[in-house]
Design a protein that fits this description.
This protein is α+β, with helices and mostly antiparallel strands. 21% of the residues lie in helices and 29% in strands. It starts with 12 loop residues before the first helix and ends with a strand. α1 crosses α2 and α1 runs parallel beside α3. The chain is built from 3 helices and 7 strands, in the order αααβββββββ. Strands 1, 2, 3, 4, 5, 6 and 7 form a 7-stranded antiparallel sheet that branches. The longest helix is centred in the N-terminal third of the chain and has 10 residues. It has a single domain, classed as Cathepsin B, Chain A. This is Peptidase C39 domain-containing protein.
């Protein structure tokens, strides 16, 4: 049974998403992130892609070099980090990180937000991704 990682801090979606990809707990991934000078309180974690890329790279996981514009759910690779809930603060873009997975023909999103009734989401019409990062060899 798939058990999604829930973020333990309001701004910990990037850390939780990487934990979901790598199969780690939130506290394990937070320790790795902190050792890399990455902290959930740093707003850059959800306004800059280099932090999640760095955490994945340190585990030997490759990502697409660029953010790829979202076209449709069917066009996504089998594993991707998605940016949803886009908004701006003081002219800077921010988003919420989630993980898209396609496994045995099933498509779902692992959303680490603690307020959700279920963190395995299939309500695709409710999420409006702007772009994604393909995750390879995870």
């Amino acid at each position: 049974m798939l058990k999604p990682v829930i973020q333990e801090e309001p701004t910990g979606c990037g850390i939780a998403s990487v934990a979901n990809v790598l199969g780690k707990t939130y506290s394990e991934m937070k320790a790795v992130a902190n050792a890399m000078d990455i902290y959930a309180e740093d707003k850059s974690l959800w306004s800059d892609t280099q932090y999640v890329r760095g955490m994945l790279s340190s585990a030997g996981v490759e990502t697409s070099p660029d953010e790829i514009p979202f076209e449709s759910w069917g066009c996504l690779p089998d594993l991707a980090l998605l940016s949803i809930k886009h908004h701006q603060e003081a002219g800077k873009n921010f988003w919420h990180w989630v993980v898209f997975k396609r496994q045995e023909g099933q498509e779902f999103v692992l959303d680490s937000a603690s307020y959700l009734p279920s963190n395995i989401r299939t309500d695709f019409d409710e999420m409006q991704p702007k772009w994604f990062i393909e995750v390879m060899n995870a």
